[in-house]
Design a protein that fits this description.
The structure is a single chain. The protein has 495 residues and is mainly β. It folds into two domains: 22-233; 239-289 and 302-442. It is built from six helices and 31 strands. It has helices spanning 3-12, 14-17, 173-182, 208-213, 390-399, 425-430, and strands at residues 22-27, 30-35, 48-53, 62-70, 80-92, 101-107, 121-123, 126-127, 152-156, 166-171, 186-192, 201-206, 227-233, 239-244, 247-252, 265-270, 279-287, 297-309, 318-324, 338-340, 343-344, 369-373, 383-388, 403-409, 418-423, 444-450, 455-458, 462-466, 470-474, 479-483, 488-492. The protein has an eight-stranded antiparallel β-barrel. The protein has an eight-stranded antiparallel beta barrel with strand order 16-17-24-19-22-23-18-25. A three-stranded mixed beta sheet has the order 27-29-30. Strand 7 (121-123) and strand 8 form a beta hairpin. The longest helix is centred in the first third of the chain and has 10 residues, at 3-12. It is rod-shaped.
Length: 495
């Protein structure tokens, strides 16, 4: 098998065919700044936002810039954050001393209103520190922010930095965590520098108002919004796969030696009457060997069968349960004593007329799915949607790469005939309409899954969603593809 040829194609065509991690740039939503030396003044509608310290002569005077970023873009929902870039622009001269200093970024734990916030108020009627009145404190550590949790920082000399320069803050994992925690809402940030009572160390960042106006800065630089750029991997999209039944048959206790694998229907239930229970079991297999499921997470499963012929049941409601078969069956030879040619139910060495044996061929305590209904009042052609539980999804996961064998039957009833007659693969393949013109439909397993990692076996030629460290084997091409460290779509070319 030519592994190299197809692997080279995938790698060489990666730009065209692989959906890479996405990048989204989010401009600041609202911004303002507040100052300790003029505590009652709001500064949310000007051209710049100041952050740092106006300190001189032994007196520290703090300036804090406040910014919010709207993270409600649906593309971010469930995404994995790979990296963050936070950039601000020097909009005006801060008249700082000729020294290098650090500006830190913290997450604000409370919202601010850019029109009303000041040194005592975060928003109209709300005070910093959760106070009940104006206390002239500014944001309070441990209440409004966490001073120990620096999200990003910038170190530079403001006095020698030209107006219009883009300042790229160095983020750490805490900023990614804060973004991830606020996806679907708003991220509030505050910018300030450690106190300096001797030197003026102040940045004056371009505000959203100045950026929106488009008016050039003093040196003809174009004003820029403060921007949060997020490199992310979108949440893997759940895929839907529909799998028709592979083989099916039915067996009956009152005619134990008869195989019933090639008829128009498969019966399940009980022919009981007059105190005698007569069990019918429908058997079905689903092929999971050629599907893009290896390493997948199963989100949900739907199992449907069709009423293909009259079961002539009593006018009662009854339950049909589905169990996982631990042994394969052969639709041409199976009967009440034989699972497949030369193999007997229960692991017996001879024909014992037992049918499938609890604890050997299946587990009677583990119901994978069930259907409750009145067969006698159900129209021909009705699709019966079995109520599945987590056990069915687990059975599918356990059998990926192989086959899933199921058995359908009802609790014994020795007084009433309670039998469903499901459309068989043969009847569905023939396509002839039923008596009421309903189109025959085979039993179907529909799987909603999210690709994660592992092996994929596929007949598909075209786009395929894969997870990291995936080996894809194309049955049609008879070739392997190895896709390292990647989650997304790949294109399987035609030979």
């Amino acid at each position: 098998m030519n592994k190299k040829k197809l692997l080279i194609c995938i790698l060489a065509c990666s730009t065209a065919f692989l959906a890479q991690a996405e990048t989204i740039s989010i401009a600041v939503n609202t911004d303002a700044w507040i100052r300790s030396d003029d505590p009652g003044k709001p500064n949310g509608l000007g051209d710049g936002n100041l952050a740092g310290d106006f300190g001189s002569g032994g007196e520290s005077k703090t300036a804090i810039a406040l910014m919010s970023f709207n993270l409600s873009d649906p593309a971010l929902a469930g995404a994995t954050i790979n990296s963050i870039s936070l950039t601000l622009q020097k909009g005006f001269t801060g008249n700082s001393a000729d020294i290098s200093f650090t500006t830190n970024v913290y997450e604000l734990l409370v919202p601010f209103d850019h029109e009303t916030t000041n040194w005592g108020v975060s928003s109209a009627g709300a005070f910093w520190g959760g106070a009940s009145d104006f206390l002239d404190t500014g944001p309070v550590d441990g209440v409004d922010y966490d001073a120990a949790a620096v999200l990003a920082s910038y170190t530079g000399n403001e006095s020698t930095t030209p107006v219009g320069t883009i300042l790229d803050f160095s983020p750490n994992s805490a900023l990614s965590d804060a973004v991830a925690a606020n996806i679907g809402g708003v991220l509030y940030l505050m910018f300030t520098s450690p106190a300096d009572d001797q030197n003026r160390i102040v940045w004056n960042y371009t505000s959203s108002e100045r950026a929106a106006s488009g008016n050039l800065l003093d040196d003809s630089a174009v004003p820029q919004f403060a921007t949060l750029t997020i490199d992310y991997t979108p949440e893997p999209v759940g895929q839907i796969m529909t799998i028709p039944v592979d083989t099916d048959a039915w067996i009956r206790s009152d005619n134990p030696g008869q195989p019933n694998g090639f008829g128009g229907g498969n019966l399940a239930g009980d022919f009981g009457s007059g105190g005698e229970s007569k069990t019918a079991i429908a058997l079905m297999s689903f092929d999971l060997t050629k599907l893009a499921l290896a390493g997948a997470t199963i989100n949900s499963v739907s199992l449907t069968v069709q009423k293909g012929a009259e079961g002539n049941s009593a006018d009662v409601t009854f339950t049909t349960n589905v169990y996982g078969l631990f042994v394969p069956f052969d639709d041409a030879t199976t009967n009440w004593g034989v699972s497949s040619a030369g193999n007997f139910w229960g692991g017996a060495s001879e024909f014992l007329d037992t049918g499938p044996v609890d604890g050997v061929d299946y587990d009677a305590a583990t119901v994978l799915a069930s259907y409750v209904g009145n067969e006698s009042t159900t129209e021909l052609g009705t699709i019966l949607d079995f109520s599945e539980n987590s056990a069915l999804a687990e059975a599918i996961e356990a059998n990926i790469g192989g086959k899933l064998y199921l058995m359908f039957t009802s609790p014994a009833d020795d007084q009433n005939r309670v039998v469903w007659n499901y459309t068989s693969t043969e009847k569905a393949a023939a396509g002839a309409p039923m008596d009421n013109d309903a189109i025959p439909v085979p039993p179907t397993l529909t799987i909603d899954y999210t690709m994660t990692e592992g092996w994929i076996f596929t007949d598909w030629l075209g786009w395929l969603y894969v997870g990291p460290e995936a080996w894809v084997y194309s049955l049609s091409l008879e070739q392997y593809i190895y896709i390292p460290n990647y989650t997304g779509w790949v294109y399987i070319p035609k030979p």
